[in-house]
Amino acid sequence: MLFAKQIGQQIEKLSALNASLAEQVADLLAIARKKNARIVEDFFPGLPDGPLKETALAIISAWYLGVVTDAPDAAVFTYAYALMYQPTKDVMTIPSYAISAPNAWSAEAPPLSNMPEF
Amino acid sequence: LNATLWRQQEDAQMATDQSADVVVVGTGVVGCLIAEQALDAGLSVLMLEAGPRVDRSRIVENYRKLPPSIRLGHWDAPYPPEPWAPHLETRRAKEQEQYLQLEGPNARAYLQGYVRYAGGATWHWAGLSWRITPEDMRLKSLYGVGRDWPFEYDVLEPYYTRAEYAIGVCGPSDPALQWPANTKRSKPYPMGPIPFGPGERRLTEVAAKLGMINLHAPQARNSGAAYDGRPACCGTNNCFPVCPLAAKYDASSALPKIEAKGGKILVNAVVYRIETGEKNAIEAVYYFDPVKRSQRVTGKIFVIACNGIETPKLLLLSKDERNPNGVANSSDQVGRNMMDQPKLTVRLELQEPLWTGVGPVQSSSIVGTSQGDFRSRYAGALFRMENFARSPLGAAAALKKGLVGKALDTEIRRISACTAQLTVEHEILPSPDNRLTLSNKKDWLGINKPNIYYDVGDYVRRSAKEYTVPRLQELAAGLGATSFQLSPEFLNSDHIMGGCIMGADAATSVVDPDCRAHDHHNLFLPGGGAMPSGTALNSTLSMAALALKAGDALVDQLRHG
Q: How many other C-beta atoms lie within 10 A of the C-beta of residue B281?
């Protein structure tokens, strides 16, 4: 994805709340490498409950929401590249971006199973 | 405020003549329509705006920088107020209590959002532009409740048409699908309707089976083509809090036109007093600049159009020896009869995908339910499905479940498609007890904050119980809902009306049929405040029509005395 590296760096920078972040990321990467993980499902089920798993979920949440913590004062590190818009991008626009040419959108409801590629 | 910038602005303001034929306080839709009309008639116009003038790109950027949980439902958040021009802020619970002082059984339902920026509340309005019906103007005669308007629909109709062309309203050409249905119009809508997305199409089918007609809403949004120098709607699904394209009319896009015609606009000028003189004519208005220096502005005609809360507040603030209850208030009706459409919302979970979020955030409504003989007993109402993109809600809910990977994406897609929000907005009756007064609490400039007592009344409560909630349940069942979460109390609709109520009798109303104050021949108070009935429908087009009617009257008055 475009700008993935920059967005990742932003998440890291904004995660000042978690002093152990660097260490935990290293641990998570080590687990993922050990399992030859290509997607999150390859290693996530093996994570023990506790801080490491919580951090993994927080990182995933940040990628989807574009904020580290969704609080009223949170700094947004990405709007349009937040992953939350991707699973519905075949139907809905990212609000404030045009969906189509004037009046050219569709009233057809696609099935849930047509998950877009992203 | 940056000192150099401030000095430049001050110099610019001082260079401006602080007098005009027509002085307009407020730069929302009402003020802008009147200003343009007066300029077209060859009159000089000076507009005063309490807040700043901000570029659209800045508002869009402010919006995108909001955290996801604030982007929906906090329409004020991209519009941080200047200290001297406060308005409601809802980002944090504590902020919410700062400006509007609310009391009464339904205080929560008067938490009105409006923007004290050049352009006013049209910045974040939905654009829905309903006419009211002939019956809506005769509640007392037909149903024995509320008040009648002092004129009939035929008088208002040409102004509705002019308003539709002035702000660019799109709508159906088939008279059966217009509102009021099959009623004479002097001209068709300037543009055809905006197409439905999947959710709206589905709701329309479901409603039809229940005998309810979901109409394409007439809306001040450019449909399929540019209009009046603004581009066509491209479905950015962001009508509120801001249309990034200006495809939706907002008064900020009218300001350059006003300036091109010679109108002057002073921003950051907080009018705090209206001065009366001989024969109780208005002589001047006074404003504070951001460093609290007082300035006096004179004129021949004064138009106070700074919204349904700020206008009565200013009249009450201006009491003097001649007008001990406040300017325009010999009837004691200023600030009374405060209305809105008390709203209930219901969140639905559905078995099948509905897919809202395609097209404008509001683009259709069921309005036939606002009419009927039942109005002698309880309120009519408008039903609507909110059409905003639900992907952020889907993501937040799916993440809370601790899902990852494909399971997370699948759940985001499911929740985004298979949830909905229905809304019902009720007609409230004008009641003298629903009253705006001056709070003892002061704002940053030392001006009293508005205090409002609000009770939606049994008329609305009975409607919810006997009529609207059962109809919501029918709609929900028709959509295949598996869960139905009704809002626990009535909410605001941001359609502020009634505080300067219109009537033929000076003893019981504030303004005459041209929105001229009964007490002051050169003071006009047009807009929602003048409306004698609130109806269940969005108020802006009626406000715009009343503005044009007032504009005709004031132009005529200056020409012929």
A: 14
Yes or no, beta carbons of B235 and A88 under 8 Å apart: no
Closest CA to B18 of B255, B269, B261: B269
Distance CA B274, CA B256 (A): 27
Contacts of A73 in chain B (CB under 8 A): 67
Q: Any idea which residues of B carry the catalytic annotation?
A: 495
ipTM of the complex: 0.95
Tokens linked to B403: 């899902």
Q: What digits encode the pLDDT tens for the residues B34-52?
A: 999 999 999 999 999 999 9
Nearest to B391 among A66, A92, A111 (CB): A92
DSSP letter (8 states) at residue B64: H
CB contact under 8 A, B198 and A108: yes
In 3D, which of A30, A71, A21 has the Cα closest to residue A51? Answer: A21
**75-94 of A, contacting B, C-beta below 8 A:** 76, 79-80, 82-88, 91-94
Model confidence at B57: pLDDT above 80: yes
Residue B264 has pLDDT above 80, yes or no: yes
Q: What percent of chain B has pLDDT over 70?
A: 97
The pLDDT of residue B6 is 60
SS3 content of chain B, % helix, strand, coil (to 5): 35, 20, 50
